[in-house]
Design brief:
The complex is a heterodimer of chains A (297) and B (429).
Chain A: E1 25-30, H1 36-42, H2 48-54, E2 56-60, E3 72-78, H3 84-96, E4 97-103, H4 105-109, H5 121-128, E5 152-154, H6 161-173, H7 184-191, H8 196-200, H9 216-219, H10 236-245, H11 250-257, H12 265-279
Chain B: E1 3-8, E2 18-25, E3 28-36, H1 43-47, H2 55-60, H3 67-82, H4 88-119, H5 124-130, H6 132-153, E4 162-163, E5 166-167, H7 173-177, H8 180-198, E6 212-215, E7 226-229, E8 234-235, H9 240-243, E9 244-247, E10 256-259, H10 269-276, H11 282-290, H12 303-323, E11 340-348, E12 351-359, E13 365-371, H13 373-391, H14 397-409, H15 415-418
Helix pairs in contact in B: 3-4, 4-5, 4-6, 4-12, 4-14, 5-6, 6-8, 8-12, 11-12, 13-14
Classes of the chains: A alpha/beta (297), B alpha+beta (429).
């Protein structure tokens, strides 16, 4: 995700999507992704028909063959940009969209497919395909905000459907979405879960991970693995240090930061720092500052 | 002789990005292609160098609609590599989780993606204007299936509770008991929904297919069984590659599967039903008989009914597992990695899903191969397109295009899944 956009709400003073004579027009778009975030809308079993009454679903290829032309009042964009064609397509969509909201880790941070960004893709493709010349793909997987301005980024792999409904409602009403930007730790406390890292020494990404899932993993006796990406100003170095104290190797710590939000800046920097430690074990001695108070309260 | 071109540039009501291209000369189809242009995501490459314990979370991201299927085949393959047997409670809970996914995925496809074709609507929202109770009933069933995945897996999409050896946390009996009543009501809905679906008008079309599915002596296949076919294949997951191969074709970012020396085959609900109907629950068998679906069924359009039978069966199995659930006394510990190759095959909603992993003694993966159902069905989908277009060649272009799209949807293709598995290793020794 772009630093400039991170944590941004609806643009200040955003006017509500016009109401009255016509229903607002909603469009859902797919780029490189698993379809799960747009499926979240169809998973709103109790609300789906009400949403369809309140807005005109003008373009949602996964759900309907009725494809209406733009402009659209609100575009929800799933997936990352991995081909030249898609890089052009997102610009067209932006021009047709009054508001554009990215949904999920692929659209917001490049997704798991951004793991290619850490390797040499030209070589990669040649190894992968019997006929690499049949395949057209970019060397990187990048978030939507790297290509066009984005009005709001909804986090998660997958997104949370209650947050999705809130964002749709917010943009139609002209208010800011109420998606808190604090860490998973806060959600854990709100849920009343015992801290898995403090109580049991289970490595957990909760202290540096953006809220949104409701602190699911600790409630299922496992550490957070970072589906919602970095929270604002995360102290990843301090957390990595704590993980090392718990006996985790630089390789494992690096992999933990390099998953579904690998290309999000703070996670990327931390996984690269762990790469450096792997390459030069002497640096492990002067690792992160000790006493990461935010990692274990 | 005139040449007609039937094209759909962006297929709708399927998961992922594909297109259809048909060239018809006179009454003959010259070319029939399901073009898949969904960009590849290279999962088999990412998996190299990752720890075995990360695999269930990573492979879930292949598909937002059937993440459980990927998790199930993956843990089975890794446990196979480690020589690990899971305890019966874990096995039962995995079936329960899979039931939830079958239900949500099948109902989504039957009533929101496929039924609109039979009734002439653009989608379920449009269909709901005239058939609101039908759509609402479907949403109730889908929700009941999703609730299983949410309670047991933590959330509906990319569940977080599956691990090698079992679950991170076994559910408390009360958590599962709370599912009972909604599931019972949804099971009754499933009977009504299936009877309603049986009243749809199915195109008169049959072909002779080789059906491939798992087969298990004691139960309708889901999590385990041997890979069998209607033409006599009967092998375990370890020997899948002896009988099945994949090829790359120019118009698709998904590989095409074939039975070695024979050609295309058919996986999915209709294949499972044709090969395993005797293992259905008594109620599912009875409703199957009531609606007059005769087996073996070679009309792919009737896959919609096969899904309905499986939904009913899945509700029955889910209730059975919940009723007999006793939480395990201990949580399984971390398994000891062992160098080797493991194989896993389970039945995803869309059909056979086969995994193979090479794992080192350090627990890191050195290779992975995943064959999803849609790439197995793709050559059969194209053969169907050819046959359907010739069978209905007298239709005007719009009607023929719609019939062709409907025939693609018979397979509930998951294009997102299929393209992520371009083969990464050159290992066909």
């Amino acid at each position: 995700m772009s630093a400039a956009r991170r944590g941004a709400g609806a643009p200040a003073g955003a006017s509500p999507v016009p109401r009255g004579r016509r229903r607002p027009r909603l469009a859902v778009w797919k780029f490189a992704s698993c379809d799960g975030c747009q499926l979240s809308l169809l998973d709103c079993e109790d609300e789906l028909l009400a949403v369809a009454d309140a807005v005109e679903i003008a373009n949602f290829a996964e759900a309907s063959s009725a494809i209406g032309k733009g402009p659209y009042d609100l575009s929800l964009v799933e997936g990352s940009i991995t081909t030249e064609h898609d890089a052009r397509r997102i610009r067209t969509i932006r021009r047709q969209s009054r508001r554009l909201v990215t949904i999920g880790a692929c659209a917001t941070a490049g997704g798991i497919q951004a793991l290619r960004n850490f390797g040499d893709v030209a070589q990669f493709a040649a190894v992968v395909y019997a006929r690499p010349d049949y395949i057209s793909t970019l060397a990187t997987s990048t978030p939507i905000a790297a290509h066009v301005p984005v009005d709001f980024e909804l986090r998660g792999c997958p997104i949370d459907k209650r947050q999705l409904l809130d964002v749709i409602t917010a943009f139609l009403a002209g208010r800011r979405p109420t998606t808190p930007a604090h860490s998973v730790c806060v959600e854990c406390k709100l849920r009343g879960s015992v801290c898995v890292m403090v109580a049991r020494g289970t490595p957990c990404l909760g202290p540096v991970t953006h809220a949104g899932c409701g602190a699911l993993c600790p409630a299922y006796d496992r550490g957070c693995y970072g589906c919602f990406g970095p929270t604002a100003a995360p102290n990843t170095a301090s957390l990595a240090h704590r993980w090392a104290e718990l006996g985790e190797s630089p390789a494992r710590i690096g992999r933990a930061f390099r998953s579904f939000n690998a290309w999000a800046e703070p996670f990327r920097r931390e996984s690269e720092a762990q790469d450096d430690r792997l390459a030069d074990p002497a640096r492990q001695a002067k690792a992160a500052p000790a006493g990461g108070s935010e990692t274990a309260e | 002789m005139t040449t007609r071109t039937i094209k759909v540039d962006y297929l709708t009501r399927v998961e992922g990005e594909g297109a259809l291209h048909l060239t018809i000369r006179g009454r003959r189809v010259e070319r029939a292609e399901l073009r898949i242009f969904e960009p590849p995501r290279f999962f088999e490459a990412f998996l190299r160098g990752r720890g075995y314990e990360e695999v269930p979370d990573i492979v879930a991201r292949i598909c937002g609609i059937c993440p459980v299927a990927y998790q199930m085949s993956a843990v089975q393959a890794i446990e196979d590599a480690f020589g690990l047997t899971v305890d019966p409670t874990v096995r039962a809970l995995r079936r329960l989780l899979y039931c939830g996914e079958w239900i949500e995925s099948h109902v989504l496809h039957q009533f929101m993606l496929h039924a609109p074709d039979f009734l002439g609507y653009a989608g379920a929202i449009e269909m709901a204007r005239d058939h609101r109770p039908v759509v609402e009933r479907a949403l109730r069933m889908k929700k009941a299936g999703n609730e299983i995945v949410r309670v047991l897996g933590g959330r509906e999409i990319h569940p977080i509770n599956v691990r090698v050896g079992g679950f991170h946390r076994a559910p408390a009996p009360g958590e599962l008991r709370a599912l009972r009543e909604p599931l019972r009501r949804a099971r009754d809905d499933a009977i009504d929904a299936l009877r309603w679906a049986a009243g749809l008008e199915f195109p008169d079309f049959e072909r002779d297919y080789e059906f491939v599915a798992l087969h298990h002596p004691g139960e309708y296949p889901m999590n385990e069984g041997r890979i069998v076919s209607s033409a006599g294949i009967d092998v375990d997951a370890r020997h899948y590659e002896d009988h099945f191969e994949e090829r790359q074709v120019e118009h698709s970012t998904a590989l095409h599967s074939a039975i070695r020396g024979r050609g295309p085959y058919f996986v999915g609900p209709l294949a499972r039903l044709n090969l395993n109907a005797a293992s259905l629950s008594p109620l599912a068998r009875q409703v199957l008989a009531d609606i007059g679906l005769r087996l073996p069924c070679r009309n792919p359009f009737r896959s919609l009914l096969a899904r309905g039978v499986e939904v009913l069966h899945a509700f029955e199995v889910a209730l059975e597992v919940i009723d007999s659930y006793q939480p395990p006394e201990t949580v399984p510990g971390e398994p000891s990695p062992r160098a080797g190759t493991g194989f896993g095959a389970t039945e995803a909603p869309r059909g056979l899903l086969w995994h193979r992993y090479e794992i080192g003694g350090d627990g890191l993966l050195s290779g992975a191969r995943i064959v999803p159902p849609t790439s197995q069905n793709q050559p059969t989908i194209e053969e169907d397109l050819r046959a359907v277009a010739e069978r209905f060649v007298d239709y005007d272009d719009d009607a023929l295009r719609e019939r062709c799209e409907q025939s693609i949807r018979n397979y509930d293709p998951c294009i997102s899944c299929s393209t992520h598995f371009l083969k990464l290793e050159i290992d066909r020794a």
